[in-house]
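Here is one such tokenized protein:
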Amino acid sequence: MPLVLGPVLRHVGETTASVWVQTERAATVSVLGSEARTFEVSGHHYALVPVSGLTPDSRTPYQVEIDGERVWPPTTSPFPPSLIRTRGPESDRSNRIIFGSCRYPKASDPRVAAELGIDALDAYAARMTKRAPEEWPDALLLLGDQVYADELTPRNRRRIAGRRDRLPDWPDDEIVGFDEYVGLYQDAWTDPEIRWLMSTVPTAMIFDDHDVRDDWNTSARWREEMRAMPWWRDRIRSAIASYWVYQHIGNLPTADLASNTDYRKIMDHEGDTWPLLVELADRADAETDGAKGVRFSFRWDLGHSRFLMIDSRNGRILEDGQHLMLGDSEFSWIEEQVEAPGRVEHLVLGTSIPWLLPHAIGELETVNEIASGRPGWRGRLAETIRQAADLEHWAAFRASFDRLTAMVVRAAAGGPATVSVLSGDVHHSYAARADLPPDARARVHQLTCSPVHNTMHWFIKPGFRLGWSRIARRLAERWAAGVGAPPTPVSWERVTGPLFGNMIATLDIDGEKAEAFFEQPRTAATMVERARVRLTP
């Protein structure tokens, strides 16, 4: 079959769209009369087809052709036609955005499958096939851990064990090479329901730690420990290169692609582009804040809603005594996008890790950051606790937390009806409302949905319930004040949650009104609503 993976519908505008595919060989890929030549990475072939000439506010069924041969949709398919639904004046004020994070692939082993439970995105897609297109979501936001390079399925363990090109020092239970990442993405995206869903719902993505490795970029010491591993350079190059190919380039609107130097260089290259991607990966991993770095944050304007995805993993600055979620240059870019001209009724910020955590956990992370900076055994112990307990969210980067909070407060005073921060990572779902100054027009919420499909450690439920309790909050606040942590610049209250288990969340926008709801799979094709939150009065 010439089509290996895809099609994946990525950014869609009023008259343009991008369709991503992986092909078996070098070829020309066509969608609705628009064409793109594939580019090669280590013997694998990919194309991002820029479709143009579409009609605003239209629904257009599409086919994919490879060298003139129709490869999508299949000749016989149980699914509705794949559509490109453009935006326009009639749809500018409405958006239905589904989101979540932490999606482990389906497992063939019955024991593993039982532990994982029903894939929430798979069940959502199955239910969606029975609904009219006007009820389909306008965008799918995958907020991290799309693949797990360090927690392998039995199938993946067997696959890498059989490879003859693995170097002797590569670990037996983790992904290292680019070819191995190819297998991860194929496992994640070939499920029939998921493949159809991603072919017809515009999909945006950002990575989190497991796309690379658990605790990725949690601290300078973590980076030092990983650099000492003989296989780490191969791993980080493969991880970033595969992320760029499979996830990142489709995030960029057509105009941004045209001006992206790395994208143009790779598209214009004859032959294998792996050396170019190695150079790109090295720059991305070098903690370069500025023009020489690689920006993975991006912006989508969805009618009168502005969506801004923040790279809160690769963008970290950890060396020379710094501990920042983002460097100054990238944070300034984020602030500029928030304040850019245009009618914005709803501002949506995506970050793989939550801004507002359970209070006690947030205070604990700030305390740990202070302790980790101390010399001697106390600092070493705090660092060990940080890595063991995953104390690495925005509150653990207090200077960045304060800057993000200030940006959100300014935005809330500037005109939108809502500011929503969408996150995942923490293996429970909840909504929290920030308490802002009286001059703030917008209501501000943290909306967290995790996992889409994964297991839960035994301590998750009691740990997060305790983290939200008032007693734990008061104790943690006293502890933080005692070690010199400044008061948090914003307070917040839990609105719903914590909710546990596989979940998909929806942000539903209609004019100036907005609400969010959380759904859990009941069966492989049905969902049950667990909670609903009004985001506007």
Observations:
- The mean pLDDT is 94.
- The radius of gyration is 22 Å.
- The longest helix spans residues 232-248.
- The longest strand covers residues 513-523.
